[in-house]
Amino acid sequence: MTIRTARPNRGQRFRPRTHCLKKLDAIVVEMQDPKNGVKGSEQKLNVTTIPHAITGANITAWICNKMKTSTEEAQVFGTMLVAYGYIYPLQNHRKLVMCNDSSLYRFQTPYFWPSQQWVPEDSDYAIYLAKRNIRKKGMLEPYEQVDYNHLHEWLNHKWDFIVMQATEQYKAGRDRNKADRVVFDCQERAFWIVNRPPRRTHSALDVGPERLINPNVEEKITFDQYRRVNIFYQQAIMRSKVKSSVSLGALVKYITSYKNHDAFLAPCLPSNPWETDHDAYWTLNMRRVDVPTKMRVERWSFSLFELLTDLRGRDDFKIFLKKEFSGENLAFWEAAEELKWGTASSMSAKAESIFKTFLAPGAPRWINIDGRTMGLTVKGLEHPHRYVLEAAQTHVFMLMKKDTFFRYLKSPTYKEIQKKALSPEAHNFSPAQLEENARNRSAGIHPIILWQQEEEEKAKAAAASAPVDVKAVMSKIDRKK
After folding, report:
1. How many domains does the chain have?
2. Which of 16, 78, 90, 310 could lock onto 104 through a cystine, CB 3.0 to 4.6 A?
């Protein structure tokens, strides 16, 4: 049986559709029929006699006989009735399943059926938890205690009213006989288990949003829909295609390149710090380490993106560009990244600085991009935002990717760092050494300190690579004279 849902108001749980629940209501009413329904009897629960209790085996047998189905399917349907709160267990309240054995169940009172569309409020749940807290003398279930504390803080402005209501309900419950008191407690608890389940527990009422298409209704396609479909297929025909062999070859090439760099497929060298409590791996792979590892240097050759993502690789790439007197493209790319990920307050100032440094006529580090991209970028800088330099940044990145990156891989700069790169040997710690590592384990460098160090190095590098203003230098010399 398929249960569909209607979209609720904000803050409510998803409720199953009414017409589907009415069918379940009819089945449950038929199950309670005195003549042809499930036979119930008085059963002992601890020291209390519970009236009209039924066993899981009797419910499963009735469903098998009524619906002409197998025992497994009948048990699944019975579990659905329990999950929706039509039947509740008497022994294990948190286990909302139908067991095909002598486990005891009872039919829920119709007032608590989901077809009533009663949306439980937080105040109702708080009253229930406060009442249980009084009855259990503070010994709630762990998840109930968490909810109780949260509601106490959330509804603190009317907590006196909640405690008063809980106290009155508790006093009224004490006037009932013990069997009725136990039955009502089980009914109420079953209702809240369904509607406020423990955390990380699946609830049958959370079944998703409303289906937008009814499969039983023949859909009429309008002219506008035909037009949209026609445009979609025309665009699909014009779209460039790639052969399966080409795409599979690219995938195989990618996997072959990265398989030795995947932590799930290849071991960490010299050792996994999470297993050995030895921080050599982290020390060797710091963001701005002096001498990187061979695996790290090899990864730079995979793509320009890998090279620029690694700050140590980007520094090495800067050294190469400085020798070729072509560092303005990388400097512009970095400035665009700072604008994209920087603070909103400094956005206008950064955009103006980038325009004066890289894009304005006669700029000290003018970049060579096509006229169309330059026009769009300059026009966008009139009202700057985070992605105003996206087109120019992409253009510069493609220029570096097609030309500068491959020249860097063939340059003495890259070959020299390849020779210097470290190839750490794998650690082979004994159990005693692992225990010693665990005892001597210390906290690493705080990320904020690392960030401060990187900012200082970045500022020094920017000061060293900044263009020299000859007029300013000459004026200073003249003043000294």
Report:
1. 3
2. 90
